[in-house]
Amino acid sequence: MNADTKQSRRDQSHARILDAAARAVRRQGYAGVGVADVMKEAGMTHGGFYAHFQSRDALLVAAIEHAALDSVRILSRRMEALQEAGASPVRALIEAYLGDEHVASCERGCPVAALGSEMPRQSDELLAVSRKRVSGLVERVRSSLPPDAPRERAFALAAGMVGALQLARALGDEGRAMLPATRAALIDQYDA
């Protein structure tokens, strides 16, 4: 086996571990992520973990970053489709973020909504990467608003969307039933 093939297999294994860990952390929270379970879900043995990560915290840091990239990619596709259909950037953001598909999939959704209340209780390293994700979401929201919109407006909209997503997931069918009115209220307030 040549070095390129070996590196390619290692990269593929690493990607499977990150995918499994990113889903697990959004599904179960920081404390619910076990190395053995992640490796099993990735189709690998527990012993192979340390060839990829120095510690569980290092895995979680990488998983949060991976989850964010995955979430941004999915959200961007939804927003693009809505904008192609005529929605403004802020309307597309609100409708995509609070859309039924996003609400239904905690494992593939926004890590900020999945982990927000747990973030302050994490190690400094995990807290730093988690805060970076929150700031990234606020900046994503800000880029959808008019260029002169203050950062506080983006923060308020991001907080409203994250809170609505968390409540909809917590309340199940009842929460999902409230989302159309919530989307409409946010669009009325922020899509001026």
How does this structure look, described?
By secondary structure, the protein is an all-alpha fold. It has one domain (55-190): Orthogonal Bundle (Tetracycline Repressor, domain 2), CATH 1.10.357.10. Helix content is 73%, strand content 0%. It has 9 helices and no strands.
Secondary-structure map with pairings?
Blueprint: H1 3-28, H2 35-41, H3 56-84, H4 89-97, H5 100-104, H6 111-115, H7 124-144, H8 151-171, H9 173-190
Helix pairs in contact: 1-3, 3-4, 3-7, 4-9, 7-8, 8-9
Short synopsis of the structure:
The chain is mostly helical and 192 residues long. It has 9 helices and no strands.
Number of folding domains?
A: 1
The largest sheet, given as strand count, sense and whether it forms a barrel, is: none
> Quick check: average pLDDT?
90
Structure classification: mainly alpha
The outline comes out as elongated
Number of helices: 9
Residues in helices, as a percent range? over 70%
Computed over alpha carbons, the radius of gyration is 18 Å
H/E element order: HHHHHHHHH
Distance between the termini: 60 Å
Q: Which second-level CATH architecture applies? A: Orthogonal Bundle
List the defining traits of the structure above.
192 residues, elongated, Tetracycline Repressor, domain 2, mainly alpha, 9 helices
